[in-house]
Amino acid sequence: MNSLIFKSITKMVSPILMIFSLYLLLRGHQLPGGGFIAGLMTSAGFVMIYLAYGCERFDFKHRSRVFYFMFSGGLALSFLTGLAGLFVGGYFLKSGVAHVEMPLIHEDWEFASAAVFDIGVYLVVCGVCMSLMTLLGEE
Amino acid sequence: MTHLLALPILIPLGTAILLLLLRFQPMARRILVGISSLLIVIVNISLLSTIRTGGIQSYQTGGWAAPYGIILVGDLFSGILLVLGCVIAICAVYYSFAYLKTDAQQALFHALFFFLWAGTNGSFLTGDIFNLFVMFEIVLMSIYALLTLLREKKQIEAGIKLISMGLLSSALFLVAVGGIYAFAGTLNMADLAVKVKPYAHHPLVSAVAMLFIGVFGLKAALMPMHFWLPDVHSSAPTPISAMLSGILIKVGVYAIIRVFCLIFVDLQGHFQIFILTLASITMFVGAMGALAQSDLKRVLAYSSVSQIGYIFMGVGFFSVAGLGAAIFYIISHGIIKASLFLAAGVLKKMRGSMEMSEHGNMMKISPLFALLFLIGVFSLGGIPPSSGFFMKFQLIKAGLDGAFYVPVAVALVVSLFTLFYLVQAWQKVCLFEQEKAPEKSLNLHLLGPMGVLAVLSLVLGFAAAPVIDLANAASQQLFSPELYINAVMGNQ
Fold this sequence. Notes:
The structure holds two protein chains of two kinds. Chain A is mostly helical.
């Protein structure tokens, strides 16, 4: 596709999509959002780049191994979070929360193990979507 | 050990993920596949013995108590199916090393196979109806990919049929789960059993029960919904055919038994005639289909449809003896049918085709293969002293005790057809003359797992009594749903 309108819109929209998806990812364990939806959003951004520019801006073709290890690594991360729950909390998938007083800004930040699980899901969804896209693009 | 109940899901899942990560290290993958398969077998057997001595076990994932969290429950029935599943799966795994040619195929195959294994074990263990849906999806996703892995033309066609079946059944399953959730406000099966019991004859409950028969019947290939099975089971790679016919169609049967012995206990009488009628038609249609086939794997696939009818007949009696017979039938049929499918794979590797007219002379080429194949044939045909005789005997005895003469008569007539089409297939493959010499010689690594399963079915015949006792104990446990409910809700 070689359309100037689509190319310029992609330049503006895809960074916003990706940053907003990170926001959704990090709040997902408490509020609406989460790894799945964030992963879909990030890959939507990449789909736009792929459709608008092909491989000239970002080499999708030769990154298939990266995408492969992205989703298998993401699966491993989520699984390990579950296992950590088993060894630390006593049950598989048991989640824990830690409150940490941040230096300098003096705010109480909450770190949940569920967020790590979500990051795993995010990587799986991103990796699968991008692999699908490059595979379909090859045909 | 309290985590024992989660291990049958966690080990295959972890193995599958590691196999994905180790895609480019063939040696490490082989070792991992071997170790984890053995580990799963050990875990499943020790789980069954724990359940045998300690009663129904339950496990709360994430530490959330019932009815809010997802509970894993292991009773005797699920324990038996777990052990059956791992016996068939370990043979299929060993077989796959010799069956698949390239390392790239093996890498994907084994990763997907362990996902499939995790899904199967999960559907037997879960105590939550929505989690059952999730486990079914894991099974279906892996099967879609495993079925079309070798990219043969027939497999793509079967893949389309399987996907349409999968989507239809998933959609119906969601509707059914939504319906029961709207009514009872819970998804935990034990909690559902308590909440639905006073309203058993509410029209919505009957409608949901009917939907569940549709969904699980579709998975188990009950008569009007068996359209997808012959294509899928016959064109899948052979180790997967063995898994499909050996254990995966039984997942549907398991779900129907679980749902009707726990949630819809009071509706058993309403659906009895319906299930028995469908079961009788399924037996007959499957056997007629098998008679008309010239492709050995299609004969076996149609025979699976017919045998599912027998199992549903045992379920439809809704008596302790009938269900016990059905459970024994599931065990015995799983082992025999897996062995027969693996035998078909041995033949396919020798001549590259599944048409029986292109085979022959196996009696001269390998008498051992002919003998092992004959054990499977006689076993499924119901010739004593094989386990196939006891599975049919138990079933028919239970039917006569309950005075269900029509289904019993159909079962007896159909079993004659079964023996006929199987012996005919054996004759064509082993006795008939074939001028063309086979392209490849017999692979002993393929013959091994098939022989193990065939001998196992014979051993199961000689040592039928303890297994029948176990099946009857499982059936007894299924008919006292309060045991299950207490095990889940009691440990809050």
